[in-house]
Design goal:
heterodimer, A: mainly alpha, about 75% helix, B: alpha/beta, six-stranded mixed sheet, globular
């Protein structure tokens, strides 16, 4: 019963939110506006897919905003140095994956708490991005690169939305239908139990951080395409929005819980909330208060659920 | 002659957990200035009785009287307020604080009362005085985290005696102390007696008790089976009372079959935990590992499995050396460990039953990249049926199952992993009678199928009923090997509890190999 509520609650909240906003401001439902919401939330949702995996495994990564900026800048440099667009995007993804590898190895092999490692990494990657660009935006990117953010497939489907769908399907498959996914939940639920069952915990933990890093890299490329420059200051504060999306969608900070569908809903709730607030002329200051409150509510709910289970397991 | 109320009295205390009766009407009466020994097998109810006294557990029935007045302890602070202090086996000190800070934790001498400023000099001085009174050579300003286990125990003892105005409970206090430190402790205990404190002393070491005990209470199966003056009962009689457990379960017979040695442990050593352990287990054989709490049995099987380090020695599986041990490697080579603590090292509590069951062998469910959920469900149903796991729902969150069913899921995990060598650490602890029977049946089936089983258990009837051979550990060493069919609970306990030469025949352990 309560499991069912837990699964359904975020979805119901999203629908309710849309209904209320549409009633107050019919423009909300226009295809232009909805496509806008999809574009705005794409970057957050893509990173949040990777964050879901890391958080289900009981980890966390605060450096994703910085990774995104660094990867965006690396991809931009590749293209300004003559690399074709696809190779530029690949460079961004690879740079992100390398950052994830560094995080994962430090966390898993050296057994340093992920919160601390990625808090430090957040500063390091941002610093590197600023250093190699001298703090200035990388300009002169090829026009066709913009298609990654602004293009429409068949003139209809926004390209970022398509990427979100592809990444979400891949992540869902990873979590629900592969060995790695099974270990991911087991490690997050009880890392000692996973170890005693013979799971090579470190290896999988590193893999999850690499996956998240690669997605942050892809997000960095999309963001660069949207801005048509490589911005070393891109993605500031995104880590909190990404973590919030996972948590609102039912992911647990203590691991072992979370799903792709939940995270997408969490990300949409935040996107719709801020879009609706803009349409209704609510200031961005108030928006921050509302979003903050929603996050605390979601975590409180999760915490009570967990305690109930623990009492039942008594 | 006036009647003087005892310092402490517990009257017909009963307590059960989840329907399992742990204390069935136990009474304990301790006079001021008396050292009262509390003995019993592991699981006899000593710790639970003391936790009731400490206010950690509430009794289902019965009462506690302090100097003749009934009291109710609903939390540990209540017991302390009445001057009843406890020294736990697991150390409960703050490692980052100093010796003096730990001793006076919660009762720091203050300089400006209202401001709560700790008078550090006064505190260190008083700590120094106490420690030197007790003959403990410890610096009050040393950080507790840097001390040896033995020194930490001394800090714990000092702290408890400061709190204890009426009664102090010591649970195996000498387990980490040297002979000399133990002597100091006994001196201190005699001193506490002179000051009129009641001391409850839990120990398996009867020779320790000889030095200090005035009276003894023996518990068995949550009942009090003997109470009397220390001098009136011999060690042999004490052991007989401890061991007199009835054989409640009927142990199913097993087809005798012995094949090759599947597991061989050679000179395995880890300083301070176990030393120079050599034994082997053949296909079709169940080997019992007996010993008191702290004898090193859990550390040994965890080291064989690779979950805890060993410093020397080798483990061979099927004749092949298990070099660079890790659980991952052990599992792939067909070793399975059912751990002692299923919540900490066994189950993923918030995951489904089926996922817990298949965790050690997800590999066989994968085809290409894809994990075949249907096959997993079929496998889970199969083991649910074989082990009678209730409720029979593969999707049930495992944390919501009863202890016995959780244990069956974990046993099923190693069955599903096709293990050949099973290390079972207290497989029936906290498990109801029905689930026990299922577990025994499953273990027999394993052995009949050619698996090698090592069974660590503190439940002697269980070991005698299930094992072919019983190995006995005492203080990290293998001290005896007995034929389970021809030995008695008393003989096992004698080897496990008594020092060499104290009526225990010397048994050559290595003669088997």
């Amino acid at each position: 019963m309560s499991d069912w509520i837990k699964r359904f609650l975020p979805f119901a909240s999203l629908i309710a939110l849309c209904v209320v906003i549409a009633a107050l401001e019919p423009k909300f439902l226009s295809s232009g506006n909805l496509a806008g919401v999809a574009r705005q939330t794409a970057v957050i949702t893509i990173i949040a897919m990777g964050m879901t995996v890391v958080m289900v495994a009981g980890g966390i990564d605060l450096s994703v905003g910085s990774v995104m900026a660094l990867a965006g800048v690396v991809g931009a440099f590749a293209m300004t140095n003559g690399a074709p667009v696809l190779e530029g995007i690949a460079a961004a993804v690879a740079a992100g994956a390398a950052c994830g590898l560094a995080n994962g190895v430090t966390i898993a092999a050296l057994r340093i708490p992920p919160f601390i490692v990625t808090l430090g990494a957040m500063g390091v990657y941002r610093g590197v991005a600023l250093l190699i660009t001298d703090g200035k935006a990388v300009v002169g990117l090829p026009q066709s690169f913009g298609y990654l953010a602004e293009g429409n497939l068949f003139g209809l489907v926004p390209v970022p939305l398509l990427l979100v769908v592809l990444v979400a399907l891949a992540t869902h498959f990873l979590l629900s239908s592969t060995r790695a996914g099974r270990y991911c939940y087991a490690i997050g639920s009880n890392v000692e139990a996973a170890r005693y069952a013979g799971v090579r915990v470190s290896r999988y933990q590193i893999m999850f951080y690499v996956f998240l890093g690669a997605l942050a890299g892809l997000a960095g490329a999309i963001e660069s395409a949207r801005l048509v420059t490589g911005q070393p200051t891109a993605g500031e504060g995104y880590e909190l929005r990404v973590i919030a999306a996972v948590v609102i969608g039912g992911g647990s900070l203590s691991g072992g819980q979370g799903s792709v569908v939940g995270t997408i809903i969490g990300s949409l709730i935040m996107g719709v909330l801020s879009n609706g607030a803009n349409l209704l002329g609510i200031s961005s200051f108030t928006q921050q208060i509302v979003i903050g409150a929603v996050i605390v509510l979601a975590v409180t709910f999760d915490e009570f659920q967990r305690r109930r289970l623990e009492t039942a397991a008594g | 002659m006036s009647y003087e109320a005892p310092a402490l009295e517990m009257r017909v205390i009963t307590k059960s957990f989840a329907g399992n009766s742990v204390l069935a009407g136990v009474s304990l009466c301790v006079a001021a200035g008396e050292v009262h020994a509390l003995v019993g097998e592991n699981g006899a109810g000593k710790s639970t009785l003391m936790k009731v006294l400490a206010g950690v557990h509430q009794p289902d029935a019965g009462e506690i009287l302090i100097e003749g007045r009934p009291v109710r302890f609903t939390r540990p602070a209540d017991a302390l307020a009445h001057g009843v202090a406890m020294i736990y086996q697991e150390l409960s000190l703050a490692p980052h604080l100093t010796v003096a800070e730990n001793i006076f934790l919660g009762r720091e001498p203050l300089r400006f009362r209202a401001l709560g400023v700790v008078d550090r000099r006064e505190m260190n001085e008083r700590a120094r005085q106490l420690l030197s009174d007790y003959g403990f050579r410890l610096d009050p300003r040393a950080r507790v985290g840097r001390l040896s286990a033995a020194d930490r125990q001394l800090v714990e003892i000092t702290r408890a005696t400061v709190e204890a105005r009426r009664c102090v409970v010591m649970d195996e206090p000498t387990s980490s102390l040297t002979a000399h430190e133990a002597e100091e402790l006994f001196r201190l205990i005699r001193d506490l007696k002179r000051r009129g404190l009641a001391v409850i002393y839990i120990s398996h070491r009867l020779e320790d008790l000889d030095a200090i005990a005035d009276r003894i209470t023996i518990l068995r199966d949550g009942r009090e089976v003997y109470e009397g003056a220390w001098g009136e009962i011999s060690h042999g009689e004490i052991i007989r009372h401890m061991a007199g457990r009835e054989l409640k379960e009927i142990f199913p017979p097993r087809a005798a079959f012995k094949g090759e040695a599947l597991l061989r442990v050679e000179n395995l050593t880890r300083a301070g935990k176990f030393e120079d352990i050599t034994f082997d287990v053949r296909a079709g054989e169940v080997v019992g590992l007996a010993g008191l709490a702290g004898a090193g049995r859990t550390e040994l099987v965890e080291a064989v499995f690779g979950a805890q380090p060993a410093e020397g020695g080798e483990v061979y599986l099927n004749g092949a050396r298990l070099g660079a041990p890790s659980p991952g490697r052990a599992v792939r080579l067909g070793l399975g460990l059912l751990t002692e603590d299923r919540k900490r090292t066994g189950l993923c509590l918030n995951q489904a039953l089926s996922k817990n069951l298949t965790l050690a062998n997800v590999r066989v469910l994968v085809k290409g990249w894809r994990l075949r959920r249907g096959r997993e469900r079929t496998a889970a149903r199969d083991y649910i049926e074989r082990l009678h796991i209730r409720p029979p729902d593969p999707e049930k969150t495992v944390g919501r199952l009863s202890g016995g069913n959780q244990q069956k899921v974990l046993l099923g995990r190693w069955l599903f992993a096709d293990s050949r060598v099973f290390l079972l650490d207290e497989p029936t602890r906290g498990v109801d009678v029905a689930a026990r029977a299922e577990i025994y049946r499953a273990v027999n089936k394993l052995a009949e199928g050619g698996a090698a089983v090592v069974m660590v258990s503190s439940d002697l009837p269980e070991l005698l009923g299930m094992a072919d051979r019983i190995l006995i550990m005492r203080r990290g060493r293998l001290v005896a090997e007995l034929d389970a069919k021809r030995t008695t609970q008393e003989e096992v306990l004698r080897h496990a509890a008594l020092e060499e030469g104290e009526g225990a025949e010397k048994v050559m352990v290595d003669s088997y190999v």
